[in-house]
Amino acid sequence: MLKYIVRRTFWLIPVLLMVSLITFTAMKLVPGGPFTREKPLPPKIRANLEAKYHLDEPTWKQYLRYLWNLLHFDLGPSYKYYGRTINDVMFGGGWLKAPASVSAQLGLIAVLVAVGIGIPMGIISALKQNTWIDYIAMFISMLGVSIPNFVLGLLLIWIFAVKLGWLPVARWGSPSQVVLPAITLGTGGTAFIARLTRASMLEVIRQDYIRTARAKGLKERAVIVGHALKNSLIPVTTVLGPLMAAWMTGSFLVEHVFAIPGIGKFFITSVVDRDYTLIMGTIMFYAVFLAIMNILVDISYAFIDPRIRYE
Amino acid sequence: MAVRERAIARPIELMRPPTSLWRDAWNRLLRNKMAVTGGTFVLILLFCAAFAPWVAPYHYKDTDFRNTRKPPSWEHIMGTDKLGRDVFSRIIWGTRVSIVVAIVGSLTSLVIGLTYGAISGYIGGRVDNLMMRFVDVMYAFPTLLFIILVMVVLGPGLMNVFIAIGIVAWMGIARLVRGQFLSLKEKEFTEAARMVGARDIRIITRHLLPNSIGPIIIAITLRIPHLILVEAVLSFIGLGVPPPFPSWGQMVSEGWRGMKATPHLTIFPGLAISLTMLAFNFLGDGLRDALDPLMRGTS
Amino acid sequence: MFARRKWAFVALAVIGSLILTACPPPTPIVETVVVTKEVPVEVTVPVEVTKIVEVIVTPTPTPTPLPPPKMPPPEEGLVYILGAEPPTFDINLATDTTSHMVINQLMESLYNYKPDGTIEPAAAERYEVSEDGKTYTIYLRKDLLWHDGVPCVAQHFVDGMIRLAMPETAAEYAWLMYFIEGFEELNTADATTPELVEGVAIKAIDDYTLQITLKEPLAFFPSILAFFTTYPIRLDLIEKYGDKWFEAGYFVGNGPYKLTKWEHEAVVEIEKFEDWHDADKVKIEKVIFPIVVEPATQLAMYEAGEVHSSGYPSAELPRILEDPVLSKEFIRLPRPGIYYLGLNVLREPTDHVLLRKALASAIDKRVILDEVLKMTWRKDAYTTIPPEIPAFQEDVGHFFDVEKAKAYLEEYMAEMGYEEPGDIPLIRVWFNKEGDNIDIIESVCSMWEDNLGVKTEMVTWEWKVYLDTLDVCNTPPMTPAECEYNAYRLGWVMDYGDPNNMLNEVFAPGSPFQYTGWENARFTELMKLGLEETDMAKRIEYYKEADKIACEDVVMVIPLFYYDRTRLIKTGIHYEYPPFGSPYLKDWYFEE
Predict the structure, then answer these.
(1) Which residue among C88, C300, C464 sits closest to A162, beta carbon to beta carbon?
(2) Which residue has the higher pLDDT, C338 or A151?
(3) Rounded to a whole number, what is the distance in Å from the CA of A219 to chain B's nearest CA?
């Protein structure tokens, strides 16, 4: 098992290298630079700025310089936020308040919501297939998947924050500010996980060993929990890896609507602002995070399904 | 007397006309009411997209500055937008964008993914390993950011939006095709073809591909709702289809902030998006159920 | 059976939702209708009769006063939403309105802008101009203090302006100070040298006297004294703290407020500086700036009573203007600037003045403002100088007149030999897609097509790329002739209250800020005269003539409308906004 983990971690390095190379190339192909402002810069000043950020060096040199800094965990200076480094922009502010941490907190809670509601919903739907419970559950799931995040978010704000005043409108810091964004973010995932669990459960139930268990005289509850559940969770676990990576690295839409200071917006604004280092930083962070999540998922397989072994 | 007649009549009923696997799947699909509904809706969309100038009561550019932001009425059954343009007409015209997003996006990811997966799966071994590692690299990119990056590199233009959406989605198809090819390659019919002396290309196109089509079709159909949603998100950021073409995503993004004052500007295009996504989901689910025994045979 | 039941259910749901959504509840519009009716009054001579009358007293309905505004308690401070993360608080580098909203409270410049656009002394007490009009001697207050207790002296102001000039700083607004002798030389050099610094004519005569010498006398130089380019700076602190010097906990200013908190992307907080020279006049002790980018969320926070002031999404404007509470809290203030279309005079078909006149006359700007944007208070523009600035003219330019437009077009077609308007080459409009631009440009193109019959095409750009792409067209050997646009959209908010900022710095031939490629000898001459002349009345005549040339005779620009400043502020708050720059929160207070 340990060897497997080590091997997987090792593979990270070439993958990350490739990711950084592709991103760097794409960035250099992007028209427009980070120094475009409201009023055009006189060429002298622009040349000065570019020299300051080493943008006048040959491209390969810039890339190597970037890699060198990366090895020292230095993600470089931000072009948009003068005088600040990417490390500070993404990770500054302490454990609790750092944007990366804030996004992770929101993402984790949303995942718990999605899993906590979605899996039971899917199981019950599967067990009560084709009854009205099933239809309602699946209909709600469909809704959840087809309403865009930002629409749902604003609706929730109007109803629960402005009209009823039960919850604060936006921003982050107190427990009450977690509720609406977590629901908004979690809804789409809940639906997706519910459908997935249901489909998977349906398949598992038809398997022979379930029939055997029932034939043996086991109580239904024991059959489900003891046998069906673990196996039906495998597809869900597979999906959970990328899902957690996507949510915990910040959902741009939800963070935007709820004014949450996470890193979600950087995924968009960095490109729009042509903040080269921030683009690189967010992509590298995401890649690493995803890789870690996938490794965790693979490890959890071993616990769920003893048939899976790792050499 | 009657019983004996029935007893003789039955066997004839039990004998069905000879049919192929595809025919069977088609029949199964048709029996699935949800899938049929979805499929019909998709056909209606295609019709609207193709015949938009005749279906839509107004042109999408027709402005009427005296009648801006009006709620639904008899002249404008879905109301008017900020420039007095008819919302219903713009939704009809908008089907073009959605269909093209679906088609071009799917086509792009199909072309890239199919070729990639076929090569990787057929050759196998170290090459396959390496190619799949590259797929891992592609997966490591956050989707939205990469789409935006690609779009920004390609520059302004209608087609570039769709291509960018497709470029990011080819990996799923690639993995699928590769998996199919890996297993199909070991089957007897492949061995037989090889023994007879068929060249690789022929094996791929005449034998492996047709047997892999099922899951590919399902994957693409189920992927389309996602593509449409991505276009909506891009429009929200302001990087979607450029004006004056109407796209549902753009209409939702425009109307979203004014939901309280002019709900009709968000609700109708939003409904269009949701129903389309539902339709493709139903269709995809139906296809999956219909092609299931087919697939069961191959795996 | 399974399929049928599910199908029926879904069909029901779909139909149900369609029905529900097809009938949106009508938005009630509260209209007060005043009805006057003539009532005949009969006058009767009173006869004294005692009668016991049952009188039913109905209380006269008094107009129900509006409920007190839902807002955070004043004791906790003013809560003012910031619409973006401030890129920096480095006073030489910050150029955007967000950063300056905060910096303006932390720093004190030599003069401040009054709401009417004139200047009043702030850090300075008074100034004197020399005989030749080139040397300004500014006398500072003697009680200026930095937040860390160090006295603020003239040398600090010199330091601030020199740092602005230094090429290493790469400050974007250095060009505004090129009037000052030696400034441009330092700014355009390769590196700072002590000689170049010596050559900049900004000197501290003593601790409380500052002297600035201009290249030429400049009539409007005093208003530059209120501009943020004259802030003082503490070089010793920058050296000590390096790149962190403008963060909370390090920032030291000389203004009425101190920077107490800056949680990036989340919130900025400032508190009153007790030792400021007029601290007793500052009523608001603390200001909290939550950073909320999405306008819809800003409005929601405002309506939920979580903030005192916010922005709003333009889509909600109709509702705000009709809401009894919000319409009163919606403020509209002048903000000199224009939103305009520049015309490429070097490219077909906009290379012909008659076509440009036709285009200018075919746009119904009032309809765009009233019907499309619902900005009924905003002023449509026909010349570049806004109403608040001297040299504004009411009846110059091309007004909306379809007949005239068609006449121009006919004449143009006759000259060029076009049979149909459809024969005229395609008119391409470039613009950046942010904000309401899409709606406005779509309206303009629609009007051109409907009123004139010409063919138009819209090309959208991202802001970052837009200016860069336009800049390329201005860089020799390229000229706008080679670039594929006929019209481009831009806006300009004025930096100071003089027509020179608009006509000379933006629109003059050769200005890097316009992309029309136009030349006009008289205009260039007028600009020179305007700069040199010191008699205001004469200057106004020069600029009026120049504006007429630009907008009416040559039509290298089609102004669309003048900007203004709008915001939502809760009732019960006294606010003040100068026409240029950010407000001074030290002058705000909660009314009793």
Answers:
(1) C300
(2) C338
(3) 30
pLDDT classification of A308: cutoffs 50, 70, 90: low
Q: CB–CB of B65 and C364 under 8 A?
A: yes
Residues C477 and C348 in one domain: yes
> For all residues of chain C together, what is the average pLDDT?
87
Residues C233 and C369 in one domain: no
Subunits in contact with chain A (3 or more CB pairs closer than 8 Å): B, C
Q: Residue C162 sits in which domain range?
A: 108-244
Q: Does some domain include residue C396?
A: yes
DSSP C342-369: EE-TTSSSTTSHHHHHHHHHT--HHHII
Domains identified in chain C, total number: 2
Tell me whether residues C300 and A169 touch, CB distance under 8 A.
yes
Is there a single domain that holds both residue C228 and residue C364? no
Question: Averaging pLDDT over each range in A10-24, C4-18, C73-87, which range is the top one?
Answer: C73-87
Q: Residue C190's domain is classified under what CATH number?
A: 3.90.76.10
Q: Do C172 and A130 touch (CB under 8 A)?
A: no
- Quick one: C220 and C350 in the same domain? no
Q: Report in angstroms the alpha-carbon separations of A103 from A117, A185, A270, C85.
A: 21, 11, 16, 17
Q: C486-502 pLDDT, tens per residue?
A: 999 999 999 888 999 99
Question: What's the Cα-to-Cα distance from B290 to each of A20, A142, B219, B285, rounded to whole Å?
Answer: 43, 21, 14, 9
> What local confidence, expressed as pLDDT, does residue C16 receive?
43
Are residue C239 and residue C345 in the same domain, yes or no? no
Q: What is the distance in angstroms between the Cα of B106 and the nearest Cα belonging to chain A?
A: 19
CA C578, CA C497: separation in Å to the nearest integer? Answer: 11
Could you tell me if A78 and A85 are in contact, meaning their C-beta atoms sit under 8 angstroms apart? yes
Q: Where are the beta strands (DSSP E) in C374-513?
A: 427-432, 456-461, 487-493
Q: Which of C244, C275, C308 is the last residue of a domain?
A: C244
Of C244, C278, C313, the residue that ends a domain is C244
Give the HSE-up count for residue C120: Cα atoms under 13 Å, Cβ half-sphere.
Answer: 7
* Chain A residues in contact with C2 (beta carbon < 8 A): 130
What would the DSSP string read from start to end of A136-196? Answer: HHHHHHHHHHHS-HHHHHHHHIIIIIIIS-SS--S-SSSTHHHHHHHHHHHHHHHHHHHHH
The rounded distance, in Å, linking the Cα atoms of C83 and C357 is 39
The pLDDT value given to residue C4 = 53
Interface of B with A in 188-247 (CB under 8 A): 225, 229, 232-233, 236-237
Residues of A in contact with C313 (CB under 8 A): none
Which residue is listed with tokens 């209909």?
A: A139
Asked if the structure places residue C262 within a domain, the reply is: no
The 10s digit of each residue's pLDDT in B134-170 is 888 888 888 888 888 888 788 767 778 778 877 888 8
Which of C247, C299, C464 should be substituted to probe chain A, the one whose Cβ sees the most A Cβ atoms within 10 Å? C464
Q: A165 and chain C: CB distance < 8 Å anywhere?
A: yes
Does one domain contain both C379 and C525?
Answer: yes
**Structure-token pair, residue B202:** 């022929």
Interchain CB contacts (distance < 8 Å): A and C: 132
- Nearest CB among B137, B149, B266 relative to A271 is that of B149
pTM over 0.80: yes
Average pLDDT on C495-515 reads: 90
Query: Residue A14: its chain B contacts at CB < 8 A?
Result: 133
Please report the pLDDT score of residue C15 as a whole number: 52
Shortest distance between the Cα of A70 and any Cα of chain B, in A, equals 17
Do the domain assignments include residue C53?
no
**Longest alpha-carbon distance in chain C:** 106
CATH of the domain at C404: 3.10.105.10
Is residue C229 domain-resident?
yes
Q: Do C533 and C395 sit in the same domain of this protein?
A: yes
C37: confidence class by pLDDT, cuts 50, 70, 90: very low
Does pLDDT of C316 surpass 70? Answer: yes
**ipTM score of the complex?**
0.86
Same domain (yes/no): C215, C339: no
